[in-house]
Predict the 3D structure of the following.
Amino acid sequence: MQITTKKTKMALKEYYQELSLMPTPQQELREMLARECLVSEKTVYTWLSGKATPHKGKQSKIAEVVGLPVDELFPNNKTKNGTKRH
């Protein structure tokens, strides 16, 4: 695994310390979804934690960004008889 850092030459200790300053994959996803959906990261966090569900348009955008179907990402969009909520 090669990770690009800001410096071109550094000791192993410096390299390791700089890694802690880099965003995690989860943080990158939150930032990307916020940017693409035009909402705050706090809003995205509420979606990811299950405390809120994004509107249909945002769900489509999220599905496009992550490359998974809306129905898979948001399985609770179905009513008891299996039809979608509006």
